[in-house]
């Protein structure tokens, strides 16, 4: 019991710290920059045009900054879509980096997208199975069947962790092999801003560390509730 409590506390810290750090880094560089010629949304469109990626759009969202490879759409939070800050410009470049991956057929992005779709579907099935466990405990005669069901359900939730782990190299590629070289080569930000730009790009990837830890917390919570 004590080990489980310690493990949960460790995972809570591991999930909270990256989220706090990401928010802190982005917020620190969210001040308006009059020296920038356009907003994050305008910059994303400019980069897409420069790269001749004509089938990708840019729009505002409340669901977090991301690139949707199925809809061919870069979506930015209002403060990044309309903002004229270092965070807005760098995050826009990062999401364009994903569009560049898609345009060049970058295989890890395809794998991540497929895993994300599978993980979402399997997680819904897992939740239904886990919620149905009390009823099955009454109806089922063999404990082995119940253990098999619970184990399969927890395994399906665990696939979400795998999906987040496969996301990390995709994010780093978009940040440091695509966005950062573009920002430097195009002279879009001053040399004095490059160190902070690297911090913002690195922060974006760490959101998935927190997400993976939260997925592990879900597994441990259900295991404890079901005494598996």
What keywords describe this structure?
single chain, 228 residues, mainly alpha, three-stranded mixed β-sheet, 3 strands, 5% strand, elongated
Please provide a written account of the structure:
The protein is built from 8 helices and 3 strands; from the N terminus they run H-H-E-E-E-H-H-H-H-H-H. A 3-stranded mixed sheet has the order 1-3-2. It has helices spanning 2-28, 40-50, 78-81, 86-103, 107-131, 133-139, 143-185, 194-226; strands at 57-60, 66-68, 73-76. With 228 residues, it is mainly alpha-helical. The chain is elongated and about 70 Å long. The mean pLDDT is 83.
- Total of helices: 8
Sheet with most strands: 3 strands, mixed
Q: What overall geometry do the principal axes of the alpha carbons give?
A: elongated
Total DSSP E strands: 3
Element order: H for helix, E for strand:
HHEEEHHHHHH
Radius of gyration: 21 Å
- What share of the residues does DSSP label as strand, in percent? under 5%
| DSSP helix fraction | over 70%
* Uncertain residue ranges: none
